[in-house]
Amino acid sequence: MTYATVNPATGETVQEFPTATDAEVRDVVERSHRAFGSWRGTPVPERAARMRALAELYRERKRELAALLTEEMGKPARQAVGEVLLVASIYDFYAENAERFMAGEKLEPSTGGDAEVVLEPTGSILGIMPWNYPYYQVARLAAPNLMLGNTVVLKHAPSVPQAALVQEQLFREAGFPEDVYRNVFATNEQIAEIVIPARTVQGVSLTGSERAGSAVAELAGRHLKKVVLELGGSDPFIVLDADNLENTVKHAVLGRLGNTGQACTAAKRFIVVEEAYDRFVDAFAQAMDAVEPGDPTDRKTLLGPLSSVAARDGVAAQLQDAVEKGATVRAGGTPVDRPGAWMEATVLTDVTPQMRAYEEEIFGPVAVVHRVRDADEAVELANSSPFGLGGSVFAADVDAAREVASRIESGMVFVNEVTGTAPDLPFGGIKRSGVGRELGRFGIEEFANKKLIHAPRRAEKLPPQDEEVVAP
Predict the structure, then answer these.
(1) Cα three-residue angle 186-189-191, rounded to 5 degrees
(2) Which of 327, 354, 408, 457 could form a disulfide with 322 if both were Cys (CB 3.0 to 4.6 A apart)?
(3) In 3-state terms, what secondary structure has residue 5?
(4) CATH code of the domain made up of 3-231+433-455
(5) How far is CA 204 from the centre of its chain?
(6) Do strands 430-431 and 387-388 pair parallel, antiparallel, or not at all (unpaired)?
């Protein structure tokens, strides 16, 4: 495994970094555990002050931090700045709300006495993160857990090493003790053989592929470690009518091309009722054709390069398979002849179950459009996917859209907007899209000990020693 920055717009290798030795990985794990002993005792207001300082650093350096994303994984400049500002809002959110989320919950036990459930930290948490949102996905894990009192060991994707290092630096500049948040350039084997089995590591959070999630969940289960998994998605974008078509198409383009289509929650399957199908496809194909791949450093660019040539080639293979088996290309579909990892915005119709594009997640700027008879068939097709992360329903009748949304099997559904994210909204999926939730109140509970404390009320007497006790 090589940790290296390779600019996907040019193919140039910018910088390489050595992987950690086994001894260095063990040292990071041990230091994280030792730091937990003191960090858990740090008053919440002190943790919050550091978290606010961290948020301010992101805002102050938004251009510099965004430029790293553009260089390392090709994120268009304007979207990169947006990611940085979103991260700052997440750190601010938990600084402001963590103490309230951690407040004990009073119970009224049937057995009498006083009972309370309190949230407590559990220890060192391992994060395994992908390349497509290098700051945001770290923040989803780090913000709630550091505010709770846990410590974090972070293994980032090998293709975004500079983003990994700068985040560790920012935590230290914000006043966090050195070992409370630690980056480690570990190999997959070191994670499997050293980090996850360590008794001091109490949980694992992974955002990535199904294959990676399955492997990590199996290994974590063997060592009785809690996991949170945010995996792939093939989000449906359901169109119930042709009203407000211009607005619907605008959202369709943004939902498919954001981050060059490299988002788990990107709109990938466009499911359109028959009465609206022809008008939608014509308008959508025209809009996608109008989007030109451009320089990712230009703030006007919507569609940049894919993260790597290998990623581009993988999407191209899925597209070729569909075309060879009879799918129709309504927009794009032609390779971009220039150095780097470029691909046109593409629209496919007439996709059948025999094609890879029918069920596989396409992690790039290729949209698949399906025709269905009505809302019931739209729901059936949407739910036929093995994934269940997000989804969108567009209709002039909001109540009808909400009713359809209630029948979609996914962790998140948005009405008349594409799947989005915000610090206070829970994020996560079902089925093969993963387990657990991040962000909001739910994000701080995943790696917490929900401890019950039960005691007699002060006015109550202790039961007599010879009183019969019913054991559980």
Answers:
(1) 55
(2) 327
(3) strand
(4) 3.40.605.10
(5) 14
(6) antiparallel
Whose CA is closest to 259, among 48, 82, 387, 140?
82
Lookup: tokens for 82:
């947006």
- Cα–Cα distance between 173 and 176 in angstroms, integer? 7
The 3-class SS string of 265-317 reads CCEEEEEEEHHHHHHHHHHHHHHHHCCCECCCCCCCCCECCCCCHHHHHHHHH
Hey, what are 414's tokens?
């948005």
Angle 77-83-84 from CA coordinates, rounded to 5°:
95
Q: Which residue has the tokens 């294959």?
A: 211
| DSSP code of residue 80 | H
The answer to whether the Cα torsion of 461, 464, 470, 472 is positive or negative is positive
Q: Look at residues 83, 84, 74, 82 and name the one whose alpha carbon lies nearest to residue 170.
A: 84
Q: Do domains 3-231+433-455 and 236-415 have the same CATH topology?
A: no
Query: How far apart (Å, rounded) are the C-alpha atoms in residues 69 and 263?
Result: 14
Residues 6+ apart with CB under 8 A from 406: none
Tokens of 280: 């939608």
Active site includes 468? Answer: no
264 a catalytic residue: yes
Q: What is the pLDDT of residues 434-445, one digit of tens each?
A: 999 999 999 999
From 71, 72, 83, 264, active-site residue = 264
* pLDDT tens-digit readout, 292-346: 999 999 999 999 999 999 999 999 999 999 999 999 999 998 777 788 999 999 9
Q: Are 214 and 192 within 8 A, CB to CB? A: no
User: Would you kindly state where each structural domain of the chain is located, as residue ranges?
Assistant: 3-231+433-455, 236-415
Q: Is 113 left (phi over 0), alpha (psi -120 to 50) or beta?
A: left
* Per-residue H/E/C for 159-226: CCHHHHHHHHHHHHHCCCCCCCEEECCCCHHHHHHHHCCCCCEEEEEEECCHHHHHHHHHHHHHCCCE
Judge if pTM exceeds 0.90. Answer: yes
Of these residues, 72, 83, 168, 230, which one is catalytic?
A: 230
Q: How far apart are CA 102 and CA 398, in angstroms?
A: 36
**Top CATH class, 236-415:** alpha beta
